[in-house]
Each structure stands twice: as C-alpha cells, then as structure tokens.
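dumping this here so i dont lose it
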C-alpha cells in the first residue's frame, strides 16, 4: 500500500514511520489519521518488523490536529467520534503493539502530536524539540491518551499544569521531568535513534512485548494481580526460543542471537 501523508521504511527489522506533511508541521488531517492507523497495524502484524520508530519530517514531530481542516466541518460533525475513531485508535495501536516503539521527537510535538509521542515506549528528543499541551489554547480537553500517560510520567500536578497553562517546555526540561529518555543534538538524532532501534530489534522482542504488556497492566492493577500476571507472562517467555537461546549463549559465553520467538 502506498501512503501520501506518511512514509514507511523498513531496514534490518526496524520500521521507520515518518509523518510527512512538513508544510503543515505534520498536522493530522483525516487522510493522515487513516494512513497512520493503517501503517501502525501493518507494523504490528508483520513478524519481520521487530521495532518501530515514529518521527516527523521537517521542523516538527507533529503539531496535532489540522485546525484549518477542522474549521471546514459542518454543524453535524462530532469531535467525540473523530477522537474515538482517530487518535484513540492511533494511541491504542502504539500502546498495545507487542514490540517496542520509539518516539524520535525531532521538533515540536503539540496537542495530539504530543499525545502520540507520549504513548511511545522510548522517547528520544532532539535538543530543539518542544512539547506543548495545546488543547486549552483552543478551549478543548486533552486527548490522545495524555490524561493517562502524562500523570504517570511526570505526576498529576505537573501534568495538570501543562494541560491548563499551554506552556511549551523544551527538551532539557522534558528530560528533567521524565517526559523523554534521551536528549541529543539534532544532527546526531539519526545515528542515535538507529543505534537504539537496532539494539531493540536484535533483542528478545517477544519478552520486550510481554514486558510492555505487564507494565501497562500493572499500572492499574493490584499488587496481587500484578504478581500473578508476571507469573503468567513468564510462563510464556520461559517456553520461547529466545529464552533457550539466551541460556545456551550464557553457557557457551557468547552473544545470543534472538529471533523474537
């Protein structure tokens, strides 16, 4: 399938998904939402893809919803349905994908763009990146999972502050607050992101996917349920080829060759 607003490149088991509407700072219109859902589903289903990178073209990661397009809607337009069918599904695809997803935040991430970045598992930010919860600026409520992700990442007080102030915070503060894992000079982003992605793709990605599931479920479960869930998921991992390869490599004192199964 060809995409008009998104590009997809796959190399060495790493899929790089690039938002490609640079003239609009990668704002999401209906076509881009549809294509993003499609490409994320493809990445999740293809076994050959073992790590996914989300990034933007040009100066932005994404500024979220294309507000100019939104203004053209008639009075029958339901913004709730738009969120449910669009951004909710994008975030759900990222969070439930059983493989690691890296957010390579190359520039501004605002509104839904910020939400999508926060839904990824590892966030690498260029030093010029900024994060803006822009919803309040136009009289809207935060969406795209931000009311779930942000309080867990930076605490409820800071999350509410960002939501109601509309303040743009830079990469340095984002790192200090725990929004991102790594900050790098913009010209070093490609090589740093590639190194992270290849390392994850070459790892025991079945176990990584189970780890991701356990952490998301553990965030809203009791200790007893979390412990039981860990035991169940460990049962699955313990019967994987990767586990047996890891044991064999340990005994033979060599690097393991994981296949994600």
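and the seq i came up w/
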């Amino acid at each position: 399938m060809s995409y008009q607003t998104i590009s997809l490149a796959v190399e060495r088991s790493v899929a790089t998904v690039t938002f490609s509407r640079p003239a609009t700072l990668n704002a999401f219109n209906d076509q881009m939402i549809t294509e993003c859902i499609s490409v994320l589903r493809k990445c999740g289903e293809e076994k050959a893809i073992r790590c996914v990178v989300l990034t933007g073209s040009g100066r932005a990661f994404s500024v979220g919803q294309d507000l100019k397009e939104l203004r053209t809607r008639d009075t029958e337009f339901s913004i709730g349905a738009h969120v449910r069918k669009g951004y909710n599904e994008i975030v759900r695809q990222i969070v439930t994908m059983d493989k690691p997803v890296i957010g390579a935040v190359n520039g501004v991430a605002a509104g839904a763009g910020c939400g999508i970045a926060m839904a990824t598992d590892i966030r690498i930010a260029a030093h010029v990146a900024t994060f803006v919860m822009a919803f309040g600026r136009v009289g809207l409520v935060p969406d795209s999972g931000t009311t779930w992700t942000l309080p867990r990442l930076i605490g409820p007080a800071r999350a509410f502050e960002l939501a109601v102030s509309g303040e743009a915070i830079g990469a340095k503060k984002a790192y200090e607050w725990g929004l991102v894992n790594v900050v790098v000079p913009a010209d070093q982003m490609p090589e740093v992101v590639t190194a992270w992605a290849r390392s994850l793709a070459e790892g025991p990605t079945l176990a990584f996917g189970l780890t991701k599931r356990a952490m998301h479920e553990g965030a809203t479960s009791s200790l007893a349920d979390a412990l039981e869930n860990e035991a169940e998921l460990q049962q699955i991992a313990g019967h994987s080829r990767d586990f047996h390869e890891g044991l064999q490599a340990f005994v033979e004192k060599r690097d393991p060759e994981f296949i994600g199964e």
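The longest strand covers residues 6-11.
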